[in-house]
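re: ur question from yesterday

yeah so i grabbed the chain u mentioned. its 976 aa long if i counted rite. heres the sequnce exactly as i have it in my notes:
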Amino acid sequence: MKITEKIRLAASAKSCGRPAALLIPALAVVLCLQCLPAQATTIRVGFYPQAGFHEYDHGRPAGYDVEYLEKIRRRTGWSFQFVPAPTFKAALEMLDMGEIDLLGGVQWTSERAARYRYCPYASGTTSVALITLKKNRELIFEDFQRLAGLRIGSVRGYERAKGFADYMRMQGCVPPRLTEYDDIAEVRQAMHAGKLDAFLYSITHLNDDEKVLARYNPTSFFYITGKEHFALMTALEEAIGQLKLNQPGFEIQLLQTYFPQIARTPLNKTELDFIAHSPSLRVGYAPARRPISWMDEGTGQAMGILPDLLRLLAQNSGLRFTFVPMSDKNATPADHLARGDIDLAAGVMINTVDQMDPAFILSVPALRSSMFFFGKKGLSFSSGRHLRVALPEDWHDGRQYVAAVYPAFHVQLYADTEACLKAVEQNEADVLFQNAFAVNYLLARPRHANIISLPQSQAFEDARLAVSAAAPTELLSILNKSLIGLDEKQKDQIISDNISIVTAPLDLTDFFHQYQGALFIIAALLLAVGTVTIYALRLRRRNEKAALENERRLAYITDNIDGGVISLRINEALNILDANHGFWQMLGYAEVPPGHPGLAAYIHPEDLPRARKRIRAKQCGESASGLELRLRRRDGGWLPVLLRGSAIKEGDMDTPMHCLVMDITTLTDIRERLAQEEELYRTVLEQSGEVVFDVDMRKRQFLTSPNFHTKFGRECVPFYGADGKVCNNQAVHPDDVDILEELRQRIRNGERTVFAVLRIPAADGRFIWCRVQTTRISKDGAPLRMVGKIVDIDDEVRKNTELERRSQRDSLTDLYNKQAFQEKVRRCLPVSKESGKESALLFVDLDNFKTLNDTLGHMVGDKALAAVGKILSSVFRNADAVGRFGGDEFCVFVRGIPRNVLRKRVESLRTALRLHFEENGQHVDLSSSIGVYLFDGNESSYEEALQRADQALYRAKQSGKDRFTFHGETDESGSA
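ran it thru and got these structure tokens back, copy pasting raw so excuse formatting
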């Protein structure tokens, strides 16, 4: 690709609504890409065997590294070629020989930092583990006395193994001697041969037949490349930085997917002994909170999401549970625990802890779900209104939550959730407050179609296990470890299965509510068709019966048909051969008018051509169908009727047409009312602030309410392409495409209602944060429609973002506060030195600041601190981190700066910080003392670097103030 084309693509990012400040780094990366060789758009990546990280799925590369680089590909446009390597060591040699361009999963060592170029951002986290074979069942996690006597191996030169001795000493044990081997394959071979009991290596290299005995020293791993690939690493750094900013939880998600052993902590010997001797624990559960927990009336068995999660926990841990229903509606879970009825209480919300006896403690969450207020459509919801809230009488946590958060609301108790819904529908209560799991399956029934959730009232219920504080500490530790270690896919399956169990099929009442209009029309049509058929059969036998029989038949029809019956000759006049009294009565005649003309004389002139055409078509054999006409009444008015009949051949006579004539005045009125209701519905949608959409998945149609154009200033892009496939990837922010695809996938997988937060583009180039709710309508398991709404939450999201920014800032100077500054520097460690450039930590202390506070007052002192903050921000770059540590102490972290430039900048800062203040005839002069520490790449921690900068500051203070000193230099600089 030519450089002009790359610049054009970078500039187009600005037109897509991105800040102009991002354009300059983007152009810099584009220009750097020109330095790559011609084939650099295809990056060769070393692919060494490592379970979870590098593996093959049906012959294709897969694993943590492949999925991570797929995210990088979307941001850089690169393609990746995975080059096989037999071992990690061989992959390093391939990088030295230029056979690959990039290698991932590399931990930092000073030796490698001297040979390769590291990406400043880590791509994941691991830790050192003591690993043995699963068959060694006698070896238990953190059994330190047993570990001290093991034969332990390590890879020669594996620096992380050096910390094992310190780790064992911290546990009060003598560390065993390590046996070193050339590579990890030899170590494993020795363990399988019985020469070793265990070995030390990264936990991400754990095989399926191995287990962890101990772990320590959490550390990061990085991507590396050759020193000559500066442009490659610059572009990679930009892409990983954007990935961490936009999807901060992505690396944790990958670790849980490919290395679940990192997130799960094994049970230690003390905990296993506790399990072995523990009796069956009595678990209290709510017996009427479908689908969260309930008691099966037939078997008395505990059912629901929470009991099934605890059964899975018992299966994984070895604990045994007996489920006890907490049937006393007047007793809280805390009461049951205090009485000794149960050992554990399942499903306790954390908001009730403050109201519980401090003798009880809670586990980590077992189940997190949403809670809403549910009310009729159009209800105005506000925390300040005096609303009547329906609650199940046995849900004590919900009652306490409403009382604490919505004190103006009045709580009304009912037997169960369905009774609460009925109370809202009958206006006995204004809203129902309940867990979404417990209500959504009921709202799926048409009888409750008028009840909706109120999104602005969303809260979260963290269902936990409550145990007595007097219980053994091992019990809570076992519960927490086991809950954290539950497989997410199994949890999702448990939730899905229980929702399916409680979701009952539609009964006759639901069917009537949903199709009552259609059922009425069908019944009327069936009655009409049946009546016409009976009458037509009797007319066919007219020539076979005498006139008396004909009169009796007509009399019978007259007595049993609500309408008129006529026989017509098919000609221009449509002569009436026969007609019952009901027909003439519809037209206002008490008796048959003498010498009456043909039917054509009674038909409205506008309807007559259409009537003649349809009647002739029936003569030619067209099947029976209805024809709507207007007939002139005796008083001159027009009567809307439905003419339905068939032409029947009767011997050699002309074929007459026998018809049923029905008064459809009521039906016409109904149609007019339906049209008015449609207009009313359209008006409500237009006036509502929410955007409503409807996707017909069978017809491949996508419709939105007019509010979409009002909200976003444009029409919605097509949801389906000409080929019928979904093509709506341009509907959201590029970084939210994965979230949109996940929403669709969850709908395809059978979830009924799904929520997502997405950024939707507006016509002016902005992206508006929105909450999207989608509900699937299915038949026999197949999705038919998706309906939902789009709610604007842009102000809420941006306010939360601003609050988060303020939480990281010092309120007086708007610099980073101490905690935020420390976190920012730690993310950049370890710092690798680049040719001709340094990274430094500056510790700044104001001279005479206490004198200024004591002499001129704290208000002047605050003004001085604010002025110092502005000076620091003006002297250093946006890329540098500047923070206030408290009082008159400040810190600055500078990266990638030549040493001579750094010295000049420190001198400029010292000069700028010579400040003079006067107040009420008194004055004080301020200056600064500055300590500078240059990173050499060997720092063990952030605290060590800060201590060295503080030592340099102390030397500057001791040397007379108004000075700056570099750590480790014998000559001091910057004398007054």
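noticed a couple things. Residues 600 and 609 are 10 Å apart (CA to CA). also The chain has 32 helices and 39 strands.
anyway ttyl
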